[in-house]
Amino acid sequence: MNRLWLRSSALLLCLVQFTAASKFSLADERTSGEKLLPKDTLVFFTISDVPELKKKWDKTSIGQMLHDPQLQPFLDSVNKKIEEGSKDVEDEIGVSLNDLLELPQGELTFALMEQPARKMAAVLLLEYGDSQDTIDKLLKKMDEALDKAQAEHSTEEIDDVKLHVYTFKNAGDDNPLSTLAYFTDESCLVFSNEVAALKEVLERWDGKSEDTLAENDQYKYIQTQCKTESDEPLIKMFVNPIGLINSGISMAQATVPQAGMVVGFIPMLGFDGMKGWGGTIDFDEGDFEGIGSFFFYNDSSKGLMGIFNFPAAQLAPPKWVPASAGSYAVMNWNVLGAYTSIETLVDSFQGRGSVARFLEQQANQGPMIHVKKDVIDHLDGKIHIVQGSSKEPEDGAPPIPEFFVAFGLKDATKMKKTLAAAAKAGSSMEPREFNGETIYEVQQPGTDTVVSVAVTEGQLVITNDTSMIEQLMRGGKSGQRTALVDSPEYKKIAKFFPSKTSMLSFQRSDVQLKMYYNLLKSADPDVMDGLEVGKLPPFEVIAKYLQPSGGYTVPDKKGAKSVSYSLKRTE
């Protein structure tokens, strides 16, 4: 039974393969997925045109890299492994791997909805164009597998569309599905684990319904905020967080009635405001090789949501951040606002003033540090995070990236006193003097790694990169090194940053991936299942294809928008 269930599941998964192009596209010939699903759909992901996605992907740096002659010897070994498994795939599902990869010829959509009540239904929609023969073979093979699993097959006619339903007599741990249903129409295959969900789709098949996800207020707002220059991105997604929470509670109540008590805590925690998250992804759009725009729709600042308060400000890398950094990020956090939100929430459960009393008690112990008065009150909310190249691993251990975190301070003098008090309280922090300032070092147990902590240049710094903290203590200037903010790579990315942001970031993939690439290249072929990793070219060959990328987040009256992108490659 278990093997038959796995085989049936494998057939379903095979139907959603979309990594290869096809000869034509049907994406504009029928009602799109967002108009086939009800307004209260919980999860939605769609690729509007798989072949077009493949075409655009080939234009990206990574797509071009896969055609580099120096990479072909390794890719040939990969293709050889694929060919070895192709015969097994064909024996299992009835079609060749090549036919399977050419199957998607238009839209591919996946969704989750609570349909019927207290049951989670998954819906998968796939346009297959002229690949009817492949679909017929796959469905025939699936039918045979389900018949062996003793699934009862029945059909139902709805508006001239035949709905096929398989009912499992002995659903259980080996087979979590009780039903499996599908229909085909207009060169489109639609699957679900619930018949009711397919009927919801068929009711909207003519595209005339107004009760659709496309008319959901949160979905529309998110898509408006995240639209691309072409106004029709290739990839769209949407999640209804509070809807998922409520559906989960509703389904849990069927077996655990007490689960309904959780509903009362949702507004207190502020979760009722999380009405949507989603966005778009596209390639070869204007100046961008790839761009992803995402929006978190949240109209509540109560409870835990008050922690995530990041006001917009003019943000940029300080001069002490070197251009050689693998990645850099900065955020402007309302630290006091976050503290107040936590205090208010805890006090609502424990009684007024409970947090204040607890902190006072803790301040009278150990190093005599008051978390609120001696730490939080001195933070200005600016947080800089720098990651360098990875350090050489020891005894086969994973690489350790160099990190540098700096918290901006309102009062550096008071924070130095707090740090000194913590060091004197019998901790493992060992002080040493450098350039007239104190660095506290903490040896990580069982390793040669040392984490340094210091207050310098108006920052509370934590890092495992000794050279960078010393550079900062020399005055915060880059000296002979080029500062990131002055580098051509950063300037090209920063050109698209808004004047004020809550967060911004910059990444150099070549710095971040070099260590991992070289480890892969030297890996034991037996561990890599026979892949000839030794045929990989020097890292410099692929480094030229790894484009710098950037991102930013800006607040909005209904939440926050985040954008990440890389620019088109120039020779």
Structure write-up:
This protein is α+β, with helices and mostly antiparallel strands and 571 residues long. It has two domains: 2-210, no CATH class; 305-567, no CATH class. It is 32% helix and 26% strand. The protein contains 18 helices and 20 strands. It has helices at residues 2-14, 50-59, 61-65, 72-93, 97-101, 132-148, 195-203, 217-225, 241-253, 265-269, 335-350, 354-363, 371-375, 412-424, 466-473, 488-494, 509-521, 539-543; strands at residues 43-47, 108-114, 120-127, 151-158, 161-168, 179-185, 188-192, 235-239, 274-285, 288-298, 327-332, 379-391, 400-409, 430-434, 437-443, 450-456, 459-463, 503-507, 549-556, 559-567. It has a 20-stranded antiparallel β-sheet, with helices on both faces. Helix 1 runs antiparallel to helix 6. It is globular and about 80 Å long. The chain starts with a helix and ends with a strand.
Rg is 28 Å
What is the molecular shape? Answer: globular
- How many structural domains in the coordinates? 2
Strand content: 25-35%
Terminal-residue CA separation: 56 Å
- Largest sheet, strands/sense/barrel: 20 strands, antiparallel
Secondary-structure-derived class: alpha+beta
Q: What is the subunit organization of this protein?
A: single chain
Question: How many β-strands, per DSSP?
Answer: 20
Helix content: 25-40%
Chain-averaged pLDDT: 88
- Identify low-pLDDT runs: 1-28
- The number of helical runs is 18
Short description:
The protein is an alpha+beta fold.
Provide key terms for this protein.
571 residues; alpha+beta; 2 domains; 20-stranded antiparallel beta sheet; disordered N terminus
